[in-house]
């Protein structure tokens, strides 16, 4: 039997509604994981944040591991899309990194999530261990390729090792995020400017 226009419309509406509900759950999980970490988070509390029943959440994400995977995939998808757009506009990888840090300065929950989970995930038993291991490996490799190109173009300062520079940039970004989060709760001065400090470090390694 052929599908009627009404049936097709209803099915599309149901799919869109389900996708919107999944997005709401992921956003609630981002906040929950960032506040209490993976082990401290509960699916019931995430369901409450999302305004859905616990069984309703389990319909979309049957386990906490599945929800964590969706959260991490969402974070990567957002960042990769933005960096791809920067590349399409002619920006270098390192310039795109600075812009990524600028965007993170407006996404506190995402930064808190990353800071909380990356520390927990150093344990091989953590469900996000493989994700973060791969993330760091890829981040260092791409930064290394960027510094190798600067060296080949004669734009890297004398004596700067591209492998060291790559590790230093990734470490600096992580450290700046921690300092930025701490500074948001401080009444002693303005918050840390992560993008400014990263840009200054990159400029100290390169030649005009």
TrEMBL record:
It comes from Tessaracoccus bendigoensis DSM 12906. This is Transcriptional regulator, TetR family. Residues 19-79 form the HTH tetR-type domain. GO terms for molecular function: DNA-binding transcription factor activity; transcription cis-regulatory region binding. Keywords: DNA-binding, Repressor, Transcription, Transcription regulation. It holds the Pfam family TetR_N. Residues 42-61 bind DNA.
């Amino acid at each position: 039997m052929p599908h009627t226009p009404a049936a097709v419309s209803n099915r599309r509406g149901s799919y869109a509604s389900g996708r919107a509900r999944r997005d709401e759950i992921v956003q609630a999980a981002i906040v929950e994981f960032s506040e209490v970490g993976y082990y401290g988070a509960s699916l019931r509390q995430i369901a409450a944040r999302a305004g859905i029943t616990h069984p309703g959440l389990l319909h979309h994400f049957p386990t906490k591991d599945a929800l964590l995977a969706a959260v991490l995939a969402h974070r990567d998808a957002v960042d990769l899309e933005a960096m791809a757009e920067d590349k399409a506009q002619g920006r270098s990888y390192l310039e795109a990194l600075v812009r990524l840090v600028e965007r993170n300065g407006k996404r506190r929950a995402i930064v808190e999530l990353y800071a909380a989970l990356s520390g927990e995930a150093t344990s091989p038993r953590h469900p996000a261990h493989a994700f973060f291991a791969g993330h760091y490996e890829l981040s260092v490799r791409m930064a290394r390729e960027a510094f190798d190109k600067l060296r080949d173009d004669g734009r890297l300062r004398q004596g700067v090792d591209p492998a060291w520079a790559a590790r230093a940039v990734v470490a600096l970004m992580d450290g700046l995020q921690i300092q930025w989060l701490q500074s948001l709760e401080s009444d002693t001065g303005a918050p840390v400017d992560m993008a400014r400090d990263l840009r200054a470090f990159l400029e100290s390694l390169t030649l005009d």
